[in-house]
Records
---
Amino acid sequence: MRKWWPLVAVCLGTFLFLLDTTVLSVVLPGTGEELDASLSALQWVANIYTLVLAVLMLTMGALVDRLGARTVYVVGLAVFGIASLVCGLAPDAGVLIAARGVQGIGGAAMAVTTFALIGSVYRGPDMGRAMGIFGAVTGLAAAVGPMLGGVLTQYLSWRAVFFLNLPLVAVTVALSLRVLAAGRPGTGRRIDLPGMAAFAACAGSLTYALTLAADEGWTSPAALGLLTLATLSLVVFTRIELRSGAPLLDVRLFSRASFSGVMMCVAASTAAFAALVYTSVWLQSGLGLGPVRAGLALMPLALASFATSLISGRRLHGRSPRAILATGLLLSGIGCALQAGLDADSSAGSLAAGLALTGIGVGLMGPAMGAAVFAALPPERGGMAAGAMTTFRQLGQTLGVAAFGLLFQHHGGAMSEGLNRVLIAAAATGIIGSALACAFVPKPAAAKATGTRPRNLTGSR
């Protein structure tokens, strides 16, 4: 039993990191009422966390090279815990958004170190068991999040969601310091601060432009200015990375059609989760359900995803990531389409079948996503592939929430009409992603040759 304690320490942190992503799907409406926050502000409560994650994933990989995985992991936990305390005490939406951003800093540190920590302890069959358990924990966080958030919000307060993190962080830090090996910090590559700043400016201004356009329109001076800033920042980022000897992201990789296509599939895979934010708003503000009932209404997706990931992780291991990823994206898209068609007479039960099918698709995508990304590049670029995957996944969800907010607000009628638009857009994203997977994910022979787990999965080279 002693040899599994390091895995427990890593899984606890992963559970916390993912829980604070999924739990907000039922927490935001109550938060908005108490803090008198607008829909745009609520979007930022969700967006700032995933945006910071996307911006810092690659940078945290470089810090792991310099300081060691355990140090970055423990510091990330501490930052996450302190930020959770501030979230729980937040007097207004502005403080909550800022604290959520700091939470994202801790979350990024926790996320990039998990594979490195597991890989430093386990080998052979033990590695397979450890990764299976780790995959189940990620599915469990998705399944527990909506229900836990609903119970805490309805019977205590939305603030309890953040206060719950404090004892869990304390336990995880103590356990990590005891059972995880310190390791030797290396010299590592220098941190690409100019690249990080340019990428942050691009992602942040684009997200803000999408959110602002929902209120002021695309032609407003502020929205147009932000879109211009995003474009210029992207150009600057590209030039910096092309000239850097140690880039955050080697942009030359995007000259490979297979890599670009797979990254688009990664971004598309987040559409269903981005739509959940507005599904929850409709359930609580449109139908008048309490947080617990809203959480229960979303459980078909979470439970189907959890069960499918457990089964597919064991039964489909070693199979073609091309077919599995394409199928998962297609089912996710069709599931979102089945949820659409809501009207004034619709109930929470109207979503059940579509949510379950979406959950099956999400469960299939999880285990296959990493294999598809690594199959698109040579094994020696595995670290960069892992960093790009986590970055595109978080950025996809951030931009999805912002873009769907534009559709949700400008519906010109009942709230259900706005949600229908969101769900149709999510469905189209999943179906297009499936087509991209069929076209660009390497064929089974190539995937088999390059799909082994790379040594370094921290996001650095």
---
Amino acid sequence: MPHSVNVDEQEINHFNQQAHQWWDPNGQFNALHKLNPLRMDFIQQHQTLMAKQVLDVGCGGGILSEAMAQAGAEVTGLDLAADLLQIARLHALDTGVNVHYVLDDVAKHAQSNSAQYDMVTCMEMLEHVPDPQAILHACAQAVKPGGWVFCSTLNRSNKSLLLAVITAEYVLNLVPRGTHHHDKFIKPSELTQMGREAGLVMQKTAGMEFNPILKRYRLNDDLSINYLMAFQKPLNPAS
């Protein structure tokens, strides 16, 4: 299928090439497996997942999608990396978890599924696209009034350059080299503004501490590296 303009083909190819390692908890995506309980905790602080219609944008191999489905949500996982989606589908067959995976662009999907979801998640994805603002607009279009949009990304700080790129990729080999590009990271103030321009109201933030040396993974108030942001769509959006 033709890709949307809002896609970096090099990013898609990079993740497709790593698809076979996605579900290895001790492999190159170990960090995602460690962070996933933190993402789930943050989501469930705001909204129960039971019987909720959830869209997982940039679902990759389905780590978050499966967790949300196991918590009772009806999950649609959306991505443009075909190999990753195939891995996600095969893993769901193995585990018996019901997730509907779709190869599609979020803008196109949101147009045909406007205000259909109770919740939209977009985790570790915004820093991999040319136009993250357009992604937020699509998420806002897809969620129902009163619904939630949850995002996570990396802060464009000196600390994130040192720890999330240099140390994580080139010193400790925690994630595949070339996964992150510091100039694409997004400051919390920028993400808040993107949400506002998409018609969303920022409700809460949290940092994610990822310390493989101390084996410490927890939510905190430090937004200088990895952080989460919860938005809500007003019940009566301004016209």
